[in-house]
Amino acid sequence: MTKPNKTTSQPKKGLHPRNPHRARYDFPALMKGTPELKAFVKKNPFGDLSVDFSNPQAVKILNKALLQHFYQISFWDIPEGYLCPPIPGRADYLHYLADLLAESNGGEIPKGKAVKGLDIGMGANCVYPMVGHRVYGWQFVGADIDPVSVKSAKLMVEMNPSLKGGIQCRLQKNPDHIFAGMINAKERFDFTMCNPPFHASMAEATKGSERKVKNLAANARKKGSEPFKAQPMKGKGKPVLNFGGQNAELWCPGGEAVFIKRMIEQSADFKTQCLWFTTMVSKKENLPGIYKQLKELKVEDVRTIEMAQGQKVTRIVAWTFLNESARQNWSKNGEK
Prior knowledge:
Number of strands: 10
Largest sheet: 8 strands, mixed
Order of helices and strands: EHEEHHEHEHEEHHHEHEEH
Low-confidence stretches: 7-12, 219-247
Helix content: 25-40%
């Protein structure tokens, strides 16, 4: 097994080189494609156009504009209170996955419907499958335990002609299962991906959201680009979650460490049906336990891919049960 400290970092702090969101937002272009964004755009103290990232509605409409402008997603909406993730960071995960898949494809990024991915916990926003399909043409299965999320994702897929035939949305009826019921007997996936609920309680998730707003504000001031007006409280002391999120999206008993532990355990049951299993790991302190568990399972290779967006640093941990020869021959062995 390759040592788990094998780490791939970006040449400099920031988004992936292929990520189209590396530059500042072109608000005139975004507003042209999504007119409703105009209501949330104004000049900040530095004279630059921007939006208030502590305003949940502003974040949602900005996401809609980004998806329309960069990925030709004509219809995107989520139920009130559901997770509204930042598009740039979501796109980064997919670009790094593309690099990983290229290793078993002669150094070239595999594109098109022959490549199939499984998004664990796609949420009501369905962002990973949408962006992955539009950028690389990959096929996706999006899985979630929440019926509302699955219904929302299905509607968006149906409403966007550009996504036709590219994304399946599946309801996981057993919350204790991650892959069982989602990976069929004869099904193969080039990768699985997951942004796990990393908080252990709603209270912890609330604090995390407040830190996120402060970090975004600090980074914006450093760049001199984004205005922020803190909105830490709403109503009777209820914190504003500017990115939203239901319980299953934000937290689970034991938090990120327990969720990933369960994912690793269950991945062993599908070791020949997936080329790479991957997950986001937000908390660096969880890495030693993850590496130990993977070593005990005797996986063939482990990768840690570091990512950065502003002041936030996170990483993808990827593992495979297939040896080098099997990985190189993956695309030749059977239908996906």
